[in-house]
Amino acid sequence: MEVSPLSIILVKSDSKGDRLLFRYPFQTRCNDEPSSKGRKNPYTLPVVDDLLQSPKQSFSNINKENLTGLTDEVLSSLFAVKTELCNRKFELKVNDVRFVSHPTLLQLRNKQEKEDDSGMLVNIVFALQALASHSVVNWKILVKCYHDLSKRMGIVLKYEEKRCGYVSEQTQLMTTAHDDGYTNGSNSAFQIILEKCSLANNIKKMYDDLCTTGLVNLRINRWIPLTFCLPQKVHQWHIRGKIVEPEDIDRCLSALRPYHSLLLLHPLHQKNDFTSLDGSPGLDRMLNQYSPLKNLQTLAADSDLTLTHVFELTAHLVYWAKATVIFPICSTNKYVISPNAPIHLNSPLLEKFSDTFPGSNLIRTVGEFSLPSSLSQKCNPLCHPSQQSELVKTIIWLLQHHLLLQLHTYIQYMPTDNGPLYSKRGNNKSCLASPSSRSSAVVNSFQSISAERTESESGASTVSEVTEISVNKNIVLENVGFGTTEEDKQDYQEELLLDFPDEERSSIFKIPATNTPEDLKLFARLCRKGYFQGNHHVEEIMYLENLRRSQLMQLLDKFRDVLITYETEDPAIAMFSCSS
């Protein structure tokens, strides 16, 4: 893949000069293409027009995904940078290869464990493909990831050199292998280094991990752990054919809410694989209380952790492709088969599903969700609890393998045939106005109406009386129902929907539910806050407004003449589904 490195190169520079100590892979392949088609006539002259119309093709340093065309001496002179360039990002592009590193300056230690006056520059360089489609991967972020890995490696080597002189020992072994009759370009010298030096083996393992899984888990000098995740690679195993960038993960985590839940992509009994990534004891406590039926707020309470800490641990697991974000599994959840579900007759998931659920067929199970279905529709109220538990386990397995996606109900306010009028008028009295501006406009208008009524009834009223009546009217508007007479009822309806356009009010007043004060006040409140613009699903409205599902669904049914509902997946977590 384009995100995998072409080669990892180790270069050192000290008082004895600069040298390329190790590179992996060091097996170079010769180009099978012939260098020339035939002998040219020495008496022919080049045609000027052909030279102008046929520009010279750039030379390539990549042959069968290997770095070629650059000798060890050239690479050594390129990456043995000056002291001024140490401890900062180094990036160099040569033809179609981009080199990324973080040169580190070390203080050497002698055998008496005293700091030597001389220093050594150590540079671990990653060679990447430079000519790639920008639609496939963001190369700025990819270069940043590899630079971060080179920087971490330099910090570890600097610490180990200060602690026990590890880098001096390893570089001496590598230099001796090169000086024992082997040339710099000889593969046998690199092979001897790979057999004797643990640092060379760490570089080899790092390259293999980056090219296969994208997860690097090393222990330098059998002492310092070094872990690294390449998101563009590590998420490939559970989201096939999709490049997941770190910015995509950050966008998802920024939309994380307490009503979301965590879904582990690995069995919980493999907990050591999770806790090895983070030394925080909170991670172990959270995994002990983990359940995909709990939301993050409940999980934080059960784990005795703050919600912010649970968010951070969730982001950690999601970044390392150990978990994904879902909505807590409950009976009202509605699922449908993913459009790009990796299912075919020869899919390895068929056998894996049969091993996990003996006697069950994956095709038949997934086929039951060809149409959107909720768990309550699949469960018989009279069935045994073990059958319900088995259904929940099946749903969890299908979500882990991205075979299902959850549909949420979104609401759109449509009072007229042409949609909401505020989208065209754009005045401050519309439902899109801010809560503070809407409330002030309603109070001011309501006070003026109250003052006019008071003057018409009594002829003369003091300012205190007008204010008292206005406050009383506001209290009545917020806390009690309509008046007893038909005139009072109509007045309160108009005052409650005062900031709505006239045409919208007339459409709303035709609904029988407007005669119920609680329903009308709830409808007006949710509409003013912008919940009926298709950006908030039902579960989010329930959480933000502390409403029961039955209460909200009854409201949607009563105002179905002006409210349109549709079902789609949550865009906040759509990145982790194969359909997005």
Q: Mind explaining what this structure looks like?
A:
The structure is a single chain. The chain is an alpha+beta fold and 580 residues long. Among the domains are: 7-27 and 59-234; 246-328; 334-412, no CATH class. Helix content is 44%, strand content 17%. The protein has 24 helices and 17 strands. The strands form five sheets. Strands 1, 2, 5, 6, 7 and 8 form a six-stranded antiparallel β-sheet that branches. Strands 13, 14, 15, 16 and 17 form a five-stranded antiparallel β-sheet that branches. A two-stranded antiparallel ribbon has the order 3-4. A hairpin with a 3-residue loop joins strand 9 and strand 10 (224-229). Helix 10 (281-288) crosses helix 11 and helix 18 (435-458) crosses helix 19. Residues 29-38, 111-116 and 423-484 have low confidence and may be disordered.
Lay out the secondary structure.
Layout: E1 7-14, E2 17-24, H1 48-53, E3 62-63, E4 66-67, H2 72-79, E5 90-94, E6 97-101, E7 104-109, E8 115-129, H3 139-164, H4 166-179, H5 187-196, H6 198-212, E9 215-220, E10 224-229, H7 231-234, H8 246-254, E11 261-264, H9 271-275, H10 281-288, H11 296-303, H12 307-319, E12 323-326, E13 334-337, H13 348-356, H14 362-367, E14 373-374, H15 375-378, H16 385-400, E15 404-413, H17 422-425, H18 435-458, H19 463-479, H20 486-496, H21 502-509, H22 517-528, E16 533-537, H23 538-545, H24 549-558, E17 563-568
Antiparallel strand pairs: 1-2, 1-8, 3-4, 5-6, 6-8, 7-8, 9-10, 11-12, 13-14, 13-15, 15-16, 15-17
Helix pairs in contact: 4-5, 5-6, 8-12, 10-11, 11-12, 18-19
Family: Belongs to the NPR3 family.
Domain GATOR1 complex protein NPRL3 C-terminal HTH: 503-564
InterPro entries: HTH_NPRL3, Npr3
